[in-house]
Specification:
With 652 residues, the protein is α+β, with helices and mostly antiparallel strands. The chain folds into three domains: 157 residues, no CATH class; 251 residues, Immunoglobulin-like, CATH 2.60.40; 182 residues, von Willebrand factor, type A domain (Rossmann fold, 3-Layer(aba) Sandwich), CATH 3.40.50.410. It has 17 helices and 22 strands. It has a six-stranded mixed beta sheet with strand order 13-12-11-14-15-16, with helices on both faces.
């Protein structure tokens, strides 16, 4: 390349030519600055050129003796980012350390080669020394000249590249997209207002499940409100323990407590509150337990609030078992397997070790897991004890008989052999509440949702008897209303537990169970005869006008309860008349009644029920605050805080 004179390229500048070989760089002497621009003595310049390393000699050239050419623009490089170490030994190009991987494409090129009018100049002319002596001339060899050209070209390329504008890489902030929920809940419509003239009898199965409340709490704590069909009012109300009057013997496993109060959200209606408390056997009467943990270890359980929480939850339950109880562990994921053969509960080391080995992965072979779990329960069956499978899952059954009806039939068949099933739900986004409720109901068990270790402690430690010991099964409630005093009624909750009127006396029809120490609450809203709150018109064509009962008392209703003892096939009937003079003011009704009413009000508002349009969350909080009582475990205080959060979320 022919580009003009050497002097023009070197005008008023200092240029370093790093052309030394690797061997010359091992012990590099300090750089010397020599001004030869005004030297007229050839020997002096020759002596300098022969005594110094040309690669490390900086030459000052008198700008007056140079032909002027436009100077190259000054390039400021804010950062030198190249690959490799401090010095690349392959090309002797000094380099800076790499600062970050994403900027490895920023390469600094060497300066342009020195040019003259006739082309590339020899290194001695570029140094401004004139014609060298024979000694110096001998040092200039074609190989070195070629090397010089290569190094100069490399510097030129690097300089040109460094002048390119640096492109700033902009990485967009990640945008969080809420994953689409695959939670499944049973659809239902809220109970309607029924006319006593048209339908004087209400029949339903009790429900001791609490999963709906803990799922509601988990949703609110995530800053979300659950869908309306995830809110089952009876499970919200029954989540809390109530100090109802309890029975004194196992032969009478529960006792009903009925209270009538004004309705806080409607001055023209009344509330009938039915409370049932289960019998609590003495410790000496506690039966032995044969427990099989059926644990979902499929890939969908690989989250902190699923399998790890599940393992710690079962460890809490172990602390409540007696030494003569038996524990087995079965898992299912892709295929079912036995992790722990039937083992005495006293061998906690072996049980904990088996739990700690569990890992999540694979699809969900729910069918095979259920079959194996029931097989293990049958192997250790105790004729005089409790035989129960406890299924822990997020409800994602996608292998085997995954239809609810098919599983219900299987679980119902096993229930008749004396092996019951309880279900614990975990996680969110893949939670199949509908299937879990179906399994628990048909397995004579309880369905609970575990959203925290505190909830696990409540369900499996504080209320271990409620989780394991059934004191009555197939418990049904039927209420007949007196058309002389009550014109309309509405059952708050229990939509998925409704029974036909004839099912009440049919012992073949399955219903809910009540466990040791468990409390069950049902609330009716009643419209008295002549009340302006009546919503259903009277019939024009009625054969007989309604009258009071023959005793002459003004009964509001007649409550009937049927149940079977755990090993019985025939039901027992209990009845309780409800007199009008039993009505109390809400303030005198007691903490348990007032708190249950407050929970019922909040649940209806969260579902969007139209009966509470004029009743505010503030009103419900005030009522609940007045009814906290001792609140030993803080459940009622927690509820009040959740209501405050729910109000904020619903206002958004």
């Amino acid at each position: 390349m022919i580009m003009g004179s050497c002097a023009a390229a070197l005008m008023a500048s200092f240029i370093v030519f790093p052309v030394a070989m690797d061997s010359m760089n091992q012990n590099k002497p300090p750089v010397e600055y020599v001004d030869i621009s005004n030297s007229k003595d050839p020997e002096k310049t020759d002596n300098i050129s022969s005594s110094m390393n040309p690669a490390e000699t900086i030459v000052r050239v008198d700008e007056k003796k140079s032909e002027t050419t436009p100077a190259a623009p000054k390039v400021e490089i804010s950062e030198v980012l190249v690959t490799g170490n401090r010095k690349d030994k392959s090309n002797n190009v000094a380099e800076a350390p790499v600062k970050n991987v994403t900027e490895r494409d920023a390469i600094v090129a060497p300066a342009s080669p020195i040019e003259s009018r006739g082309g590339i100049v020899p290194d001695y002319e570029a140094l401004g020394r004139g014609k060298p002596s024979d000694t110096a001339q001998a040092n200039v060899r074609p190989a070195r000249e070629a090397e010089f050209r290569a190094q100069a070209g490399q510097q030129s390329a690097m300089a040109a590249d460094s002048m390119r504008p640096r492109v700033k890489r902009i990485i967009a902030e990640p945008v969080y997209v809420e994953p689409k929920s695959r939670n499944q809940f049973e659809d239902f419509d809220p109970n309607p207002v029924s006319s006593v003239t048209d339908k004087p009898v209400s029949t339903f199965s009790i429900d001791v499940d609490t999963a709906s409340y803990s799922f509601l709490r988990a949703s609110i704590n995530r800053g979300q409100l659950p869908p309306a069909n995830a809110i089952r009012l009876e499970e919200l109300i029954n989540y809390f323990p109530y100090d109802y009057e309890a029975p004194r013997s196992a032969k009478e496993p529960f006792k009903a407590n009925v209270t009538v109060t004004p309705t806080p959200w409607n001055a023209d209606t009344k509330l009938m509150h039915i409370g049932i408390k289960g019998y609590v056997p003495p410790v000496a009467e506690k039966p032995r337990s044969n427990i099989v943990f059926l644990i979902d270890t499929s890939g969908s359980m690989n989250a902190d609030n699923k399998l790890p929480l599940l393992i710690n939850s079962f460890k809490l339950l172990l602390g409540t078992l007696d030494t003569d109880d038996t524990v087995s562990i079965v898992t299912y994921a892709g295929s079912a397997g036995t992790v722990l053969e039937p083992t005495p509960a006293s061998d906690k080391s072996a049980i904990n070790s088996a739990l700690n080995r569990l890992r999540a992965g694979g699809s969900t072979a729910g069918a095979a897991g259920l079959e194996l779990a029931y097989l293990k329960a049958q192997e250790s069956f105790d004729d005089e004890g409790i035989n129960r499978v406890i299924l822990a899952t997020d409800g994602d059954f996608n292998v085997g008989f995954s239809s609810p009806d098919e599983m219900k039939t299987f679980v119902e068949k096993k229930r008749k052999t004396g092996i019951f099933l309880s279900v614990l739900g975990f996680g969110n986004g893949n939670y199949n509440d509908h299937l879990m409720q179906s399994l628990a109901q048909n397995g004579n068990g309880v369905a609970a949702y575990i959203d925290s270790l505190a909830e696990a402690n409540k369900v499996l430690a504080n209320e271990a008897g409620s989780a394991l010991i059934t004191i009555a099964k197939d418990v049904k409630i039927q209420v007949e209303f007196n058309p002389a005093t009550i014109s309309e009624y509405r059952l708050i909750g229990y939509e998925t537990r409704a029974l036909n009127r004839e099912d009440f006396n049919n012992d073949a029809v399955d219903a809910g169970e009540i466990n040791s120490g468990h409390s069950v609450t049902a609330i009716y809203e009643l419209t008295p005869v002549g009340s302006p709150a009546q919503m259903v018109d009277d019939l024009r064509y009625v054969k007989d006008k309604p009258v009071t009962v023959s005793t002459g008392s003004d009964e509001l209703a007649f409550v009937k309860i049927r149940h079977k003892l755990p090993n019985a096939d025939k039901s027992t009937l209990q009845t309780f008349p409800v007199d009008a003079d039993e009505e109390k003011s809400l303030a005198r009704a007691g903490d348990d009644t007032r708190f249950a009413v407050a929970v019922a009000a909040v649940g209806q508002k969260l579902r969007g029920d139209t009966q509470l349009t004029s009743y505010s969350y503030k009103d419900a909080i005030e009522l609940a605050n007045s009814a906290k009582g001792e609140d030993e475990h803080g459940y009622r205080s927690e509820f009040i805080q959740l209501v405050r959060l729910a109000e904020t979320l619903q206002d958004k």
